[in-house]
Design a protein that fits this description.
Elements: E1 4-7, E2 12-15, E3 23-28, H1 39-57, E4 61-66, H2 87-95, H3 99-116, H4 125-128, H5 136-148, E5 152-154, E6 160-162, H6 178-183, E7 203-208, E8 223-225, H7 227-243, E9 250-256, H8 260-275, E10 281-287, E11 290-292, E12 295-296, H9 307-312, H10 317-325, E13 333-335, H11 337-354, H12 371-381, H13 386-398, H14 405-418, H15 428-432, H16 437-452, H17 456-468, E14 471-476, E15 479-484
Parallel strand pairs: 3-4, 3-9, 9-10, 11-13
Antiparallel strand pairs: 1-2, 5-6, 6-7, 7-8, 11-12, 14-15
The chain binds zinc ion.
The site of zinc ion (ZN) has 3 residues, from loops.
């Protein structure tokens, strides 16, 4: 089978050749755990999961690493040199909690949501999902290496910057070369003047800040790491640990398209600057943005969904998984509730087919045993063309009105990639926050109406009901406001 991918680095479709025959090493930029993860983030994590499942289906050994960012991700992450404030710090201030508590709560929530969506790396989260705050030493070591190699410098106030002028390949991934940045034709550089910087696009590896809520000692003083260096350190460190030998180049790196610049551009500069290799990852795959009901997702437009919002509306996670998978990752996916209905029907159809024979005991052996498995795999081998693969699958299903046990077994093996036949269990923790915004608003209206007619017993009862569902209601003479309560164990 000829596997090929569109590589953002070469802007062309290339045949896939693993570094080590039969093995694929991948790294995916994971979530910053300052809030519940929305479906626009999940679709880019699904790309990593699809790659893993497809490679396993095609007979490869897959080693997958996805990080958890729990420090250092700045609000102005689209700027070449970063800027703004740490998202974790802001969340801690907003929730009036310790940032590590915030990180733990939203990491647990993320892992739970990812499992519901069938994202397999979440099953191995203890070993395959490194946390930034647990890898500070590795980041410091990498920064020291960059300074020793002449690619980084410390300023008088204890910040360390990557010296972009020392890395001629800067801009190769995104097209935002230093010339383009300087002329204003490329990505933006922060306006604020940072003392001691050699080039406006030099980006932070270590930020000196002894007032930050999360800070560590370093050779340059107290502070915290930059977001980009975290991924370089965790990708190399975790892959080396899992392989039991140094890994300096990986096969595939993925993320959302908004990660291309500056995040991935900077990851390449740092990693190659430290290792001296020409390459960090041989293939860079990026998921297009998810649109929701034809528009960019935003809280103010009311088209903003976390996985939990959708589960609260009764959406089955497997149907959501199917919906997020069925459009090619480089096409614009438009998520709609109508589309979700169609996906629910498609999943039901697959389950009805599978129900024609009992599920075999024991692990499924994947060897592309039948023509439909081969056609399905061939479609995916073409740059993960999921819509073509599903087209093949459903024409076969339509042409197989009386499936045999062998047909059902073939579908079960295909479901190693799809992951929709066996519904995951929805945990009580997800249900506990399980009222949608609209449902809460309805209850708030009941409280307001009851209070207007001085029926305080009803008002109190509805308020207690909301509290039990994790919703806090505050009453004042202007009416009722509410917020979701976050509880910690
Ligand atoms: Zn990253």
């Amino acid at each position: 089978m000829n596997i090929r991918f569109y590589n953002t680095l070469s802007r062309s479709v290339e045949d896939f050749k693993p570094i080590e025959p039969g093995v694929v090493r991948m790294y995916h930029c994971g979530p910053t755990v300052y809030d519940y993860v929305h479906i626009g983030n999940f679709i880019s994590f699904m790309l990593g999961d699809l790659l893993r499942r497809f490679f396993e289906f095609a007979g490869y050994d897959v080693v997958q690493v996805m990080n958890i960012t729990d420090v250092g991700h700045m609000t102005e992450d689209d700027l070449a040199d970063g800027g703004g404030d740490d998202k974790m710090k802001l969340a801690a201030e907003r929730l009036n909690l310790d940032p590590l508590q915030v990180a733990r709560h939203f990491t647990d929530a993320f892992v739970e949501d990812a499992k519901l969506l069938g994202i397999k790396v979440a099953d191995d989260h203890a070993t395959h999902m490194p946390h930034a705050t647990a890898n500070i030493d590795a980041m410091i070591a990498l920064i020291e290496k960059l300074i020793a190699n002449g690619h980084a410098y410390a300023t008088e106030d204890g910040a360390v910057y990557f010296d972009v002028a020392t890395f001629p390949d800067y801009g190769r991934l995104s097209g935002n070369t230093l010339d383009a940045l300087q002329s204003g034709a490329g990505g933006r550089v922060s306006d604020e003047h940072q003392a001691g910087k050699k080039h406006p696009a030099d980006f932070l590896l270590w930020k000196a800040d002894d007032k930050h809520l999360m800070k560590w000692d370093s050779p340059w003083g107290v502070g915290y790491p930059g977001w980009h260096i975290e991924c370089s350190a965790m990708a190399l460190g975790t892959h080396s640990a899992l392989a039991g030998k140094p890994v300096e180049v990986i096969d595939i790196h993925t993320g959302g398209e908004d990660n291309i610049f500056p995040h991935h551009e900077c990851e390449i500069a740092q990693t190659c600057g430290a290792t001296g290799n020409q390459s960090f990852a041989n293939y860079w795959l990026h998921q297009r943005h998810l649109m929701v009901e034809g528009a960019k997702m935003s809280k103010s437009k009311g088209n903003f969904y976390t996985l939990r919002d959708l589960v609260a509306r009764g959406v089955e996670p497997a149907a959501l998984r199917y919906e997020l998978l069925r459009t090619h990752y480089r096409a614009n996916t438009n998520f709609t509730l109508k589309g979700l209905e169609d996906s629910t029907k498609a999943v039901a159809r697959l389950r009805a087919f599978a129900a024609k024979a009992p599920a075999p005991d024991g692990p499924v052996e994947l060897k592309l045993q039948t023509p439909i498995e081969q056609r399905f795999a061939e479609a995916l081998a073409d740059d993960l063309n999921t819509s073509a693969a599903l087209g093949e699958l459903f024409s076969w299903i339509n042409a197989t009105p009386e499936p045999t046990a062998a047909d059902v077994a073939a579908l079960r093996r295909i479901d190693h990639v799809l992951g929709v036949l066996d519904p995951p269990e929805v945990s009580s923790a997800v249900h506990a926050t399980g009222l949608s915004d609209a449902e809460v608003e309805e209850k708030i209206a009941q409280i307001t109406a009851a209070r207007a007619s001085k029926d305080y017993a009803t008002s109190d009862a509805v308020r207690d009901e909301l509290l039990a569902a994790g919703i806090e209601v505050r009453l004042s003479k202007d009416g009722a406001t509410w917020s979701r309560k976050i509880t910690f164990d």
